[in-house]
Design goal:
heterodimer, A: 121 residues, mainly beta, Rieske Iron-sulfur Protein, 4-stranded antiparallel sheet, 3-stranded antiparallel sheet, 1 helix, 10 strands, 42% strand, globular, B: 850 residues, alpha/beta, FAD/NAD(P)-binding domain, Enolase-like, domain 1, 5 domains, 5-stranded parallel sheet, nitrite reductase [NAD(P)H] activity (chain A)
Chain lengths: 121, 850
């Protein structure tokens, strides 16, 4: 376990409501504004984990576009393909499959009733 | 300072010269981890760090010094290499093992000379100032630019490779350029007489004056221009400036002064390991003389740098054993290639020659006395033959029964050498020097797909020009190993696109989930199969792509029905059928562009592209466009784009048919048709072909009896002329045949395959296609027409459809919980319009009202 994960466990996460379930688009992404951050939410109803939250900024192009990428599975791992240069990022941990130098920040996210909540550390 | 390596301390390695070869040596050292063993110090006489001299003329074509640099600004610092720019080494003190500069003395344990060469300027009376310019460094180019400021005409002395580059530079500065060459032909080293003549014809056609067999005696004041060059024999030529590019001389002054052995024709003498007569001193690149030869190309210099880096680290290094001087160039836009023994100097050599005086093209193939092997070749006008000929020459591959076929014009482009014919030593990727053997080794060590071969060998990761060859070799090698080449669409479908198309048709499948459940694996799909299936479903059933079940399938641009640009904003292209537009509609486009501050540009397809719209602006923009009667232009889709047309018989004195009316009819019929790749059409009203129909997927050219149909052409990266398919058709037959061709293409092509590539891959070629479409040999005609009619009947403008549905519009929000625009999108103004700000000069836009 790396130190940051340890810290996250030790610290009580602060859950912040960002939008409603009806704002999401099934099997696709939308973007929310979260205190200056742009967070892309991907909604996969029917999957074991139905919701993922990752950074909207594409590290390769510098443009805020990840939320508009295509969802897929690569070798069993759920991914989003960046719209401009098509590199794949794991929805689970933000890792870039093609280039270990690139990674997306990920946030814990959950559905509470009709509200979507993202955990701020 | 004591000049010995002592235990624990790193050895001191000094590199004199920061040109391309010196820099490559540093790169090689860094890559091999040499910085742990050596403290590396590099001296460059010029102020700029190493730059690409091979592409120097681009300095006048828009590239700045930074764009030509060989590495990022921080490369040397970041690896701990001391870089002394603008600090010339004045002397080498071999006794104390020190180099001396104006700033001080620096000790070395090993010394590398990479000082390059200098331009040779023949002694000519009266040559000085702007009548004695040279072309080698960025400073030289600045001097040429300054001299050109008030000049009309410029002359380059020297018609070799560099001279022609220099002429190109003068031309791009807007001067009338002339080349004066002493020899009776251009590029005397690389070309023969016929090749030189073809090159001369092509260059003259570009407006460059060529003067051969001229020796300049003196330069005096001119009358109409600043100078007059007086040639042997009394002729003269006036000019405002003169650039000398009459060859290079090794920059060996340092070596000469400190007593190293220097070759009679110049250059520090080196052995097979680049070592000079002093075992501590090495020389690489153009300042070195190996076996009496100086190599004036960058590739041999690089190979010396690689060998030296390996040697310094005690790695197994292959000795330098000479260099292949084969070159492939584009000079003034003209392809020139020279391979091996281009002059046929080998005893018993025989040549095949192809001369095309109409196009000033020339090809020569030199074979050995037995007629079995290629010794060399000369190419002018078309380098597509180069790669194959080089493979034959370098690898001693046995020639085919009719060697002439290798240089004769081919219907389907230059002949390619099959992957199986290549020996293991054959170079596949010249950027990273990857051989076929290395590719095979990668496969044997477990690389099971093309991507892993690429990342393991680096092949095809440089210029990418070898990607097709690499794929061929890879597939051939897999087959040879008894592995079935997997032609599955992706990991979710073990079918080709063509097979999936058949399943969708036959079983009447309407959704991705249904297809995945019946014939695929998993529950999600991926960015390969989803858009491919989305396209198949659209080609078959043509339902609105924004329908909930179809949305997640669409590729990025289809999802938002606009073209994403580099900063994440979109461009918008309304349909302008046939390129015909009323002034009122033109005004609406102008008003919309002005209101949303969109960068506006005319496209090649006779339409107008509006750039810089953010996601949330798209519905607003389209609302106004649709209100004014526009429809979506599908510029974002793999679908029908435009039908370009000339003005035709209604206005043009030459027109024989109403090309605009036919273009409108075709565009109206096929708009919204989704296909494996984009489709472009054009209709010309007469044989003058102003609409360029022969470069389109579907080209129509009027005759006095009707229409001629051309199919499967395209422009772009690999242009292909469309082929004449049927002649003198009436309107109805024309449409019926196009219906069939397009539907047959949609049915049988691979994903993302243009009609041209599809056509080239059809077994039986054009005759087969004619049999299927015109003679109905498969009895598919009626079915294909009915399928097309269904798509046509289902057409609906997908933007109008989306605007009428609040659910579909929900996606067009930059943030679903906030009305602000993306604060990271920045623009700057240029030529009175806005464009994306480069990361260096970000200027915040004013608060946007949403």
């Amino acid at each position: 376990m790396n130190p940051s994960t340890a810290a996250a466990v030790a610290q009580q996460p602060h859950w912040q409501a960002v939008c409603q379930v009806e704002d999401l688009v099934a099997d696709s992404g939308v973007v929310v504004w979260l205190e200056g951050e742009q967070v892309a939410l991907f909604y996969l109803p029917g999957q074991a984990q139905a919701l993922y939250a990752v950074d909207n900024r594409d590290p390769r192009s510098g443009a805020n576009i990840i939320g508009r990428g295509l969802i897929g599975s690569v070798g069993g791992e759920l991914t989003v393909a960046a719209p401009l240069y098509k590199q794949h990022f794991s929805l689970e941990n933000g890792r870039c499959l093609e280039d270990p130098q690139q990674a997306l920040r990920v946030w814990p996210v959950r559905i509470q009733g009709k509200a979507i909540e993202v955990a701020l550390s | 300072m004591k000049a010995t390596a002592n235990g624990g301390q790193r050895e001191r390695l000094v590199i004199v010269g920061n040109g391309m070869v010196g820099h490559h040596c540093v790169e090689q050292l860094v890559e091999r981890g040499a910085l742990a063993r050596f403290e590396v110090r590099v001296f460059g006489e010029e102020r700029q760090r190493a730059y690409d001299r091979v592409h120097l003329s681009e300095y006048f074509g828009g590239s700045d010094a930074e764009a030509l640099a060989m590495c990022e600004g921080g490369f040397y610092d970041c690896h701990g290499v001391h870089l002394h720019l603008g600090e010339a080494v004045l002397e080498i003190d071999r006794e104390r093992c020190e180099v001396v500069t104006a700033e001080g003395r620096y000790g070395y344990d090993q010394l590398v000379l990479a000082t390059g060469s200098y331009p040779f300027v023949p002694p000519i009376e009266g040559s000085s100032g702007t009548a004695r310019l040279v072309y080698r460094t960025l400073d030289d180019l600045d001097a040429i630019r300054a001299a050109a400021a008030d000049a009309r005409r410029g002359v380059v002395v020297g018609g070799g490779l560099l001279g022609l580059e220099a002429a190109n530079a003068l031309k791009s500065l807007g001067l009338e350029a002339h080349v004066v060459e002493f020899a009776p032909r251009l590029m005397p080293v690389q070309l023969d007489d016929e090749g030189g003549a073809a090159l001369k014809a092509q260059i003259e056609a570009l407006g460059v004056g060529v003067h051969l067999s001229r020796a300049t005696q003196s330069i005096s004041a001119g009358e109409a221009y600043r100078y007059r060059m007086n040639f042997d024999g009394g002729e003269s030529l006036e000019t405002d400036l003169i650039v000398f590019s009459a060859g290079i001389r090794p920059q060996d002054a340092l070596g000469r002064a400190c007593g190293l052995d220097v070759a009679p024709r110049g250059g520090v003498v080196i052995d097979n390991h680049c070592r000079s007569s002093d075992p501590r001193i090495f020389a690489i690149g153009e300042c070195a003389s190996w076996n009496g030869s100086v190599f004036g190309l960058v590739a041999p210099g690089y190979s010396m740098a690689r060998n030296l880096a390996a040697l310094l680290l005690g790695e197994a290094s292959s000795p330098f054993t000479g260099a292949d001087m084969s070159t492939k160039l584009k000079l003034l836009g003209v392809d020139v290639g020279s391979i091996g023994d281009a002059h046929g100097a080998t005893p018993g050599a025989r040549s095949y020659r192809f001369i095309d005086e109409a196009n000033a093209a020339y090809r020569r193939l030199v074979v050995d006395a037995s007629g079995k092997h290629v010794l060399g070749a000369v190419l002018v006008g078309d380098n597509s033959y180069y790669d194959t000929l080089l493979q034959y020459c370098q690898n001693g591959i046995a020639l085919p029964a009719d060697p002439a076929a290798l240089i004769l014009p081919q219907g389907g482009g230059a002949p390619a050498l099959g992957a199986d014919a290549l020996p293991d030593t054959a170079t596949i990727c010249s950027c990273h020097n990857v051989s076929k053997g290395a590719v095979c080794a990668a496969i044997d060590s477990g690389c099971a797909d093309l991507a892993s071969v690429k990342s393991c060998t680096k092949a095809a990761s440089g210029c990418g020009g070898c990607a097709a060859l690499l794929k061929q070799v890879f597939e051939h090698e897999l087959t040879a190993r008894g592995v079935t080449v997997d032609k599955s669409l992706c990991e979710h479908f073990a079918y080709t696109r063509q097979e999936l198309y058949g399943l969708v048709r036959v079983e009447g499948i309407r959704t991705f989930d249904d297809l995945l459940e019946r014939h695929g694996k998993g529950h999600v799909g991926c960015d390969i199969c989803k858009p491919a299936v989305g396209s198949i479903l659209a080609s078959c059933w043509n339902q609105p792509i924004m329908d909930a079940a179809l949305v997640p399938l669409q590729d990025t641009n289809d999802t938002f029905m606009a073209n994403m640009q580099k900063n994440g904003t979109y461009s918008v292209v309304p349909r302008i059928p046939g390129g015909e537009i009323t002034p009122d509609k033109l005004i609406v486009i102008g008003q919309v562009a002005k209101k949303y501050d969109l960068y506006t540009k005319i496209t090649g397809g006779q339409r107008i592209d509006l750039f810089g719209a953010q996601l949330h602006e798209l519905p607003l923009i389209w609302g106004e466009l649709i209100e004014a009667g526009f429809e979506t232009g599908h510029a974002y889709g793999k679908s029908t784009r435009t039908v370009k047309s000339c003005v035709g018989s209604t206005w043009c004195r030459y027109g024989v048919q109403d090309s605009v009316a036919m273009a409108l009819r075709l565009e109206d019929r096929y708009k919204g048709l989704r296909s494996p790749h984009k489709l472009k059409f054009a209709v010309s009203g007469c044989t003058r072909e102003c609409a360029e129909a022969q470069s389109k997927d579907i080209g129509v050219i009027a005759t006095d009896k009707g229409w001629n149909l051309y199919v499967c052409g395209n422009g772009g990266m690999r242009p292909r002329h469309a082929e004449l398919f049927a002649t003198d058709l009436d309107d109805e037959s024309l449409v019926r045949i196009i219906d069939r061709v397009l539907m047959f293409y949609i049915r049988t092509a691979d994903k993302l395959q243009r009609t041209s590539v599809w056509r080239e891959g059809l077994e039986g070629g054009l005759d087969y296609l004619k049999a299927v479409i015109l003679d109905d040999s498969l009895q598919l005609g009626a079915e294909l027409e009915a399928q097309m009619q269904h798509v046509v009947d289902q057409y609906e403008c997908e933007w109008a459809n989306a605007l009428n549905d609040p659910e579909k519009l929900k996606r067009f929000r930059t943030f679903v919980n906030d009305r602000r625009a993306d604060p990271d999108v920045h623009f700057v103004r240029e030529r009175e319009q806005r464009r994306p700000a480069a990361p260096l000069h970000l200027i915040p836009t004013v608060e946007e009202a949403v």
